[in-house]
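ok so i was messing around last nite and threw this chain in just to see what happens. nothing serious, just curious
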Amino acid sequence: MEKEAKIYIAGHRGMVGSAMHRRLQQAGFTNFVLRTSAELDLRNQQAVTGFFENEKPEYVFLAAAKVGGIVANNIYRADFIYDNLQIQNNIIHQSYKNEVKKLMFFGSSCIYPKAAPQPMKEEYLLTGVLEQTNEPYAIAKIAGIKLCESYRRQYGCNFISVMPTNLYGPNDNYHPENSHVLPALIRKFEEAKTQQSPTVTIWGTGSPLREFLYADDLADACYHLMQNYNEELFVNVGYGEDLSIKDLALLIKKVVGYEGELVFDTARPDGTARKLMDSSRLFATGWKPRINLEDGIKLAYEDFLSKHIS
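result:
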């Protein structure tokens, strides 16, 4: 990417898009074209067509998506598949029509089969049944990968895709009902500390293993790939290690400074026993994550306090 190139980040206010924006600014890029969802409805084909024809971005980061936790994914199934398909179709097609030099599409680890072998390699895509609760979202993301592949094959577009593992960091969602496990636990422990609650309840047994990557590490990996990777196969972007939900909770408890006890509600479901990405293809290109989990949680906790505690 040339320093003066015009860059469009779709979803620039979300956790992924804002991290990408920060990373590009650090690298000296200044020519951004940005629109909030109120300014540009990415589901609207006519609006997106007009935007691309007027602005003519040269590089596109497609980080906009309708996202949510397990409950939202399961309840709003039609919204999740429709909105995400519309966003992707409009941006990817207009990137082709307006001769964008390179596009990066952000997917999700939920694209993999529910019973995929661990750690999950890129070639495991479409080898089994998806997790039922977030199947509509996963299918939309798989469609995005296949759109990028197909425009590349038919038209020679340099469209690449990345599949991040579980992310956390600045501008995360800390909503009590529809946030993901790490930000939800930050909120839980902070509230318990403030209210001097003797216990914090964790869903399930605490035994499932999960992997977490700090959002700015993802952005750094994606900047590296945007500069160096031009192949059809999408790339997993993970930390390379996982830990149990119990150990995650103990780490967050330590960072927040909560002194009570953990209680595990074993009547609640655990979910998949393990979800670890195989990021060896990415690591082989020379990139490695820099922010370890404890340091990342400290940064995320500071971000939470700055935004949610008045």
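not much to say yet. The domain at 7-170+212-240+276-291 is CATH 3.40.50.720 (Rossmann fold).
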